[in-house]
Amino acid sequence: MEEMSVKFPDCEDIISSSWKESSRAIELSDVQKKINTCAVNLSKWSRHKFGDLCLPSGDWNYALVHNSFLPDDAALILNLPRLSPNRDDTLCWHFDRKGFYSVRSGYKVAIGLKERAGSASPQLSSWWRFLWKCNVPNKCKIFFWKAFHGWLPTFATLARRRVDVLDHCLFCGAANESITHVLWSCQLAVDVWRMLLGEESNRNCVVHGAVGWNAADLVAWVDNFASDFRVANEPNHKEIFSHQPTWKPPKLGEFKINCDTSFRLRSGTAGVGVIIRNYKGTTIAAKSSPVLGCNSIEMLEAHACLVGLQLAIDVGISGVVLESDAEGVVRLLSNHIVPRTEIGAIIRRSLDLGASVHLLSVDAVRRGANSVAHNLAQLAHSLDGPMVWLDSLPPDIARLVSLDSSAFACSV
């Protein structure tokens, strides 16, 4: 309701007064009361509710949307898929990708608020970013982080936490075994640092009259040290398959829906492409549709799956397999997870349509096995509106379909 009225300046006072802070700590019940108060006050002023934006069929009320929102916002709203009717509202946790609250997400929010309050200087934050990006083992980074914050369990640290231990160093006998002592002051630590830095074998030799390294020895030592470092940091490469993934037809009596998206950053345009084929690789239907607005790539990918399922209903088929290269969306659909985020309504609607067409499975594939749908999505950039092909396909798309069929025939 707040976003429905942002283009009217009078609403600023209504929203501000509804969310006026109280002197005591705000609890979850207080937040719910403020939401209800704001909605009631805005409803009295505008005489409309959010439900009025939708018709009984689930379609948008185009006239009311255009009258209630700025043009750019109206275009984004009208581009959203049809809403499922008779669905209750749910509370969403804005700081989680799926909209669900967890202790972990709450902790991250609390830490973020603490940092924004000025607990960390910009210089220190820059230093921590540098540390986490360093190409060293993670255990080294975490060890340094713990040492900086005083979290290493030295005897002095444990004694300060009232643990019954002796606080002297077990190696040198010095009192107060602090973190600084363990890492730098202890004689054992000093000897280790000297060995690592090569002081014992070079500088001390020269100081005490012995023969030190010459230039060639020093270069060789540095080269060996660098080589050891590179070997230690080489990733474990997984086996790389030389063959490209290809499209595979569904089983006898089934149909396969491939869907993909295309987004061009410079022009800000987006499109979705869908193709449905049978077990012989014959095209049943294909669709290319431009998208007016794109809130996120994930939302666009979910919208493409919804378009594919709707096309299956339009052509009257049943027993379908859905394929997409968007693993996140595939995971949500295959596990029947409806997130409390902006794509939640799309996922819910897709699951409803999937039940209507007897959706057998939702699978993630590589781009190479989804090339026809990808090219249909790119074709959408040149269209003024949705285009559906039932008989003949555009020449470039028909050629790709033929290549898919040939590749499968060769692999049999």
Automatic annotation (TrEMBL):
Q: Which residues form the RNase H type-1 domain?
A: 258-379
The GO terms this record gives for MF are:
nucleic acid binding; RNA-DNA hybrid ribonuclease activity
SUPFAM superfamilies in alphabetical order: Ribonuclease H-like
Write down a Pfam family by its short name: zf-RVT
Q: Indicate the segments forming the Reverse transcriptase zinc-binding domain, all copies.
A: 101-193
Indicate what this protein is called per its UniProt record: RNase H type-1 domain-containing protein
Taxonomic lineage is: Eukaryota, Viridiplantae, Streptophyta, Embryophyta, Tracheophyta
